Amino acid sequence: MATNNSTAILDLIRANVQKLRAEKEEAESVDWSERRSWWQQQIRQLYDHVEEVLRPLVESGDLQVSRRLQTIHEESLGQYEVEALHLSIGLRGVVLKPIGSVIIGGVGRIDLQGPEGTARLILATPNGQNDRQYKANAKWHVTAPSRPLPLAEMDDKTFLELFAQLIGIRSE
Question: In whole angstroms, what is the distance from residue 22 CA to residue 41 CA?
């Protein structure tokens, strides 16, 4: 027999059943194959842009760039291959390693790992928009694992500062 306290909670649950069913239907309507292809394209576009930003260092022979295949498995997207981007100066390097597309707080995550630490690139939408709006509005943001919020939108200067920091180059 339900008490007054449990009846109130049951009423609250009933009042939200429609919303929860709608969320389930939306999740089931996502074309995960298309989402995986979009995510792989976002990774390639990011790497192409990073290589363009770093082109002067590559052309002078100061920076070596390579891409290496890695396999990711996500429950919704299945198993798929993407590239990790390796950036090296001398014996030091930074790796941009895709983690996944189905994440809390965004529609993609790439970890940057270097000798001086780790950072994250989060492909996020404004105001946590749902999957139906992610393609047109997603932008790369930078965050540190120890301080996931707030996200700072990534631009060329932010990326270069982050790369320098992770590889161990400090301004004097």
Answer: 29
Structure tokens belonging to residue 23: 């969320």
CB 67 within 8 A of CB 84: yes
Query: pTM value?
Result: 0.79
Q: What is the pLDDT of residues 155-167, one digit of tens each?
A: 999 999 999 999 9
Q: State how far the Cα of 59 lies from the Cα of 56, in Å rounded to an integer.
A: 5
Degrees to nearest 5, angle at CA 40 with 37 and 45: 125
Do the bridges between strand 64-74 and strand 109-114 make them parallel or antiparallel, or are there none, so unpaired? Answer: unpaired
| CB-CB neighbours of 89 under 10 Å | 16
Number of H helices, E strands in the chain: 5, 7
Paired residues of 4 in beta bridges: none
